[in-house]
Design a protein that fits this description.
heterotrimer; A alpha/beta (210); B alpha/beta (252); C alpha/beta (464); A: 210 residues; alpha/beta; Rossmann fold; 6-stranded parallel sheet; 4-stranded mixed sheet; 12 strands; globular; B: 252 residues; 2 domains; 4-stranded parallel sheet; 48% helix
């Protein structure tokens, strides 16, 4: 395969030769980027997250029973759950009469109406759920079902704002920030939720110290 | 389009009346002189003045624009403030000439002109500190912020003075970002686009049913007024300085 | 109808009213949304725009170093890195990677740079199915149309047109409810994802520090395209590099708000490399192709600032000309103010073909006012006008200015002209050949001539 590495790099070098003084990199404090709405330390991170997540049509929850109620009311009868969340979430759902599978079969992705996977964190300032590949048992399980439930178990992973979340991107080769359900406004600017990904995006916080 | 704040602001001033005043808008130029005098200025009108060179500059004919720019700098040489009753022509002096003369030698005179140029309302309010205009005018005024005053202090200055007139109601015009469509030679080279662009703006203005359409640039008013007249839509257009003159010149 | 000779003016004149109105109403909503969001969130959004512009300008002026850094970081992360000089090279490289892997079905998320190199047709011709997955781009693809907006590709279509096209392509009976259309696309494209053996994306940013590629979508299509197969190919313009991860925060905050009035786009992906041993899913291979395709020439020019562009589309939305033409009036992949600068530059030797575009502007500056990286677009348009002038490119309707310069530097001549009616033929607004002036007067009136009056008045005052 032809690789133009040297040609491109040389062209870029030559393009810059004629420049006199080159523009310097401005130093700045990331606090500049914070939205005026951001409450910072004035408010508990989860509360701020919940407000902002709701504002982008996300559904924050703090009790598995709330999830059960929501799924039952919506008629979302069967789905997938990360086996590591079996005890904390899956079994509660099963007990309530919902059908839960702990294996995600790629041959029948459309059979899962909900998918329950782990969240790697949340961002309070923007109402964002963080998923990284080490924690996400299967990308499709977090994307193909109509309802996605991201479960936050580590209370330390509530990041106050975007700059903090960027500082903590970590070593994962794939991190995705999810700020609400999948959506489009392509047709006449009309907002439609649930294009390719979930039409309902839930974040459930469980575990100690919440 | 930021300008240095250290421009001279004395009461002896040079007036650049603009080429449009020479051709069409004598009354606006007269009003400028009268208003400046009413606030205690001595107005000197260099007879040799012609044009700021913007038509050539905007056409991309930089050599022609440079010629005119140098000529104008010579005509307005010295250290007095240069007052221009047009946001557009003023911007040509302090913004356009930066680009035009960026690689040129002997730019002392054009730089001097750039550093002494004031758009009229910016000068009145921020240069001379005139914040009030005594008089009464019971009219609803739609203010058109001309594109070349974007980012400058002209718009706010105009609002300050007009709203200080008793009885004036300033109404906000929708689509504030929309251009009037004139753009000088643009309106001739792209007649359809220019007309439709102007129509969008004109519709926003008419929606407010103002008694007067006012701006710091005669060219925008000429375009919108010309469109309206052809459609038999009556809208009276006035340069902001004409409004000041008309409500009264006894300011001190 | 007015007589026009300029192609974009003719295009606007002949554009169906329905299309013009669809564009106009869509952009007005976007303009209002953007403004509200930025003002709600920031006391001084302009300070952020200026900062972002400075960071991007610095990056461009050190692109040689940052490209090396980004490449090294990506290689360290296990990605494969390629460079392509031309559109043709890039197309061949994509095909070669696909062929090496025996990939025949590609799902692609929206990317302007793949539009730029006309990738789909090429792959199709070489036996590879390449499906656009962004809803708008998918509609463009089945209609064999081209995008007319950077962010909202089908801004020129209404729901009825989309419904007709779905019916025609076997995607269900006529139904123009946007929700129904979206659900049908979901079902159809889901099959395509699951059958795919490669996913293609562009990139919004690449951090030189970590090699992280940032890809944002609202629909989740880029994520889906990288969830169901093992091969990810990203085609990235060399100007997409930013220095540090920290800077991603700056640009993401501005991109979402400027493009779609969102604090963040829904799905913001940070991709460092292929899937690691610890990761249960994701592509095993990641290829990044850095594309030049004329960019290094733009970098060498005085118009290099245009390479700061982060493709948010805000300048299109506020542009009075774009509002009358849609992107199609610009005859190239990039429309609107950014396109009027970029298209003639990227055209290389074909510059004269697009030299009219920089002239199609009243230089109103609305574009610069909203640009998240503060590109001085009017200044760049002027530079290109000057270049066209220097190269002697004849563009109908542009009056020669030498006679005017002569007039404007001879005070006596000027004064005579002012008072004499013959000046009608020499002054800037009226100095046009008679025909265009007639076109002008067809829809506008001119004020009464008052040449010389003010000067006389001034003189008389002096005497008193």
């Amino acid at each position: 395969m032809k690789n133009d590495e040297d040609t491109v790099k040389l062209a870029v070098k030559e393009a810059l030769l004629g420049l006199g003084e080159r523009a310097v990199l401005p130093e700045y404090d990331s606090a500049l980027l914070l939205s005026a709405r951001h409450k910072g330390s004035e408010q508990d991170g989860w509360t701020e997250f919940a407000e902002n997540f709701s504002a982008v049509s996300g559904k924050p929850m703090q009790e598995v029973t709330d999830l059960v109620e929501f799924l039952k009311e919506g008629g979302f009868g069967k789905g997938y759950c990360d086996p590591e969340l079996k005890q904390a979430v899956g079994e509660v759902l099963v007990e309530a009469g919902l059908q839960v599978s702990y294996e995600f079969d790629h041959q029948r992705v459309d059979d899962y109406v909900f998918g329950i996977t782990k969240a790697s964190g949340v961002i309070a300032e923007s109402g964002t759920v963080i998923l990284n590949d080490e924690d996400t048992v299967d990308r499709l399980a977090a994307l193909a079902p109509w309802v996605h439930v991201a479960v936050l178990t580590d209370q330390k992973k509530v990041f106050a704002n975007i700059p903090q979340a960027i500082e903590n991107l970590g070593g994962s080769s794939n991190v995705i920030w999810v700020t609400g359900p999948s959506k489009t406004a392509d047709i006449e600017g009309i907002l439609i939720e649930g294009v390719h990904g979930p039409g309902v995006q839930i974040c459930l916080r469980i575990g100690e110290g919440k | 389009m930021s300008q240095t704040k250290s421009r001279p602001a004395g009461r002896k001033v040079l007036l650049m009346a603009t080429c449009l005043s020479d051709v069409f808008f004598a009354d606006m130029a007269k009003a400028t002189v009268e208003v400046l005098e009413a606030v205690g200025c001595e107005v000197i009108f260099p007879e040799a003045q012609t044009c700021c060179g913007q038509p050539a500059f905007n056409s991309g004919d930089f050599p022609a624009a440079e010629k005119i720019g140098r000529y104008t700098a010579e005509v307005f040489a010295g250290d007095l403030p240069v007052i221009v009753p047009s946001g557009s022509c003023a911007a040509m002096h302090f913004h356009g000439s930066q680009l035009l003369f960026e690689d040129k030698a002997d730019t002392e005179e054009v730089e001097s002109l750039a550093g002494r140029t004031w758009e009229l309302f910016d000068f009145l309010v921020n240069g001379l500190g005139v914040k009030q205009w005594a008089g009464t005018l019971n009219k609803k005024i739609a203010l058109h912020h001309s594109c070349h005053t974007r980012g400058s202090d002209t718009g706010a200055a105009m609002e300050t003075l007009l709203s200080s007139i008793e009885g004036v109601e300033l109404v906000e015009v929708g689509t504030p970002e929309q251009c009037c469509g004139f753009g000088g030679t643009f309106s001739v080279t792209f007649p359809h686009l220019s007309g439709e662009i102007g129509q969008v703006k004109l519709d926003s203005v008419l929606e407010q049913s103002p008694d007067l359409l006012v701006s710091a640039d005669m060219s925008c008013l000429m375009h919108m007024g010309g469109l309206a007249e052809k459609q038999n839509k009556n809208i009276e257009t006035r340069h902001a300085v004409q409004v000041l003159r008309d409500v009264g010149l006894k300011q001190r | 109808m007015s007589k026009s000779v300029q192609p974009i003016d003719v295009f606007a004149r002949d554009l169906p009213r329905e299309t013009r109105d669809a564009v106009l109403s869509s952009v007005m909503t976007r303009v209002a949304g953007r403004k509200a969001k930025l003002e709600e969130d920031y006391g001084d959004p302009d300070a952020l725009r200026r900062l972002a512009g400075e960071v991007k300008q610095h990056t461009l002026e050190h692109l040689d170093e940052y490209l090396e850094q980004a490449e090294a970081a990506l290689l360290k992360n296990g990605a494969k890195v390629h460079f392509a000089s031309t559109a043709e090279d890039a197309r061949e490289q994509v095909l070669a990677i696909l062929n090496e892997n025996g990939s025949k079905r590609v799902v692609k998320s929206k990317s302007m740079v793949t539009e730029e190199i006309h990738l789909n047709d090429y792959l199709e011709k070489n036996g590879v199915e390449c499906v656009e997955t962004d809803l708008g781009e998918f509609i463009i693809q089945i209609d064999e149309d081209t995008p007319s907006h950077i962010v909202q590709p089908i801004i020129h279509k209404n729901r009825r047109q989309v419904a007709e096209s779905f019916e025609e392509h076997g995607l269900g009976e006529y139904n123009d409810d946007p929700q129904t259309i979206t659900r049908r696309a979901r079902k159809h494209l889901r099959e395509k994802y699951l059958q795919s053996d490669a996913g293609m994306t562009g990139a919004n940013f690449v951090s030189a520090e970590s090699g992280r590629l940032v890809v944002v979508t609202n629909e989740g299509n880029a994520r889906f395209g990288m969830a169901a197969n093992g091969l990810h190919i990203a085609l990235v313009g060399i100007e997409k590099v930013v220095p540090r991860d920290k800077d991603l925060g700056l640009f993401l905050n501005l991109l979402g708000r400027s493009a779609t009035a969102q604090q963040l786009t829904v799905y913001t992906q940070f991709i460092k490399g292929p899937r690691s041993a610890e990761q249960p899913s994701g592509p095993e291979q990641m290829h990044v192709i850095f594309l030049d395709n004329g960019r290094s020439k733009v970098l060498a020019s005085k118009e290099r600032d245009i390479l700061r562009c982060i493709r948010c589309g805000a300048c299109l939305n506020v542009c009075p000309v774009y509002r009358q033409t849609s992107g199609h009036g610009y005859r190239a992949v990039y429309g609107g103010p950014v396109g009027a600068v970029l298209s003639p530059l990227l055209a290389g030797d074909d510059f004269p073909k697009y030299a009219d575009l920089p002239k199609a502007s009243s230089l109103c500056g609305a574009c610069n006012e909203v640009c998240p990286v503060n590109i001085p677009i009017p200044e760049l348009l002027l530079r290109l006008r000057s270049r066209a002038n220097q190269e002697g490119i004849k563009s109908a309707g542009s009056p020669p200015m030498a006679p005017f310069a002569k007039l404007a530097t001879s005070p006596k001549l000027w004064r005579t002209a002012m008072t004499a009616s013959k000046a009608m033929n020499h002054l800037p607004i009226t100095m046009m050949p008679v025909k265009p002036l007639q076109a002008w007067l067809k829809i506008r009136t001119l004020p009464k001539w008052s040449g010389g009056e003010f000067r006389r008045w001034m003189k008389e005052r002096g005497r008193n």
